[in-house]
Specification:
The chain has 93 residues and is an alpha/beta fold. It has 3 helices and 5 strands; from the N terminus they run H-E-E-H-E-H-E-E. Helix 1 runs antiparallel to helix 2. The longest helix is centred in the first third of the chain and has 10 residues. The protein starts with a helix and ends in a 5-residue tail after the last strand.
């Protein structure tokens, strides 16, 4: 699993929002995300914003929710205001 995270992580821009109205976004490193996953962090939600072709080529982070497009519906996100949200994609922003 860590290898898959590293492969995706080298291409991905990982952003975390601690809450909808919180501090905004910050970068999270692959090892930190792997630690959160290993700890079974309850309020952690990971979203893959890659197109299908990238997912097929690079794989996905296990447990990630697949966003159908960047024009996703807010109902696809957790209602919990204290949720840690991680979005990643292979696009160089």
């Amino acid at each position: 699993m860590l290898r898959r995270l590293a492969v995706v992580g080298t291409l991905a821009l990982l952003l975390v929002a601690r809450s909808w109205a919180g501090d905004g976004f910050r970068v999270i490193h692959v090892n930190d995300l792997a630690a959160l996953i290993a700890q079974h962090t309850e309020n952690l939600f990971i979203y893959d914003a890659n197109p299908t072709s990238t997912r097929e080529r690079e794989g996905i982070i296990p447990g990630a929710h697949l966003l159908p497009s960047l024009a996703y519906d807010v109902d696809e996100l957790p209602a919990k205001k204290d949720a840690e949200l991680v979005f990643y994609c292979a696009n160089k922003h």
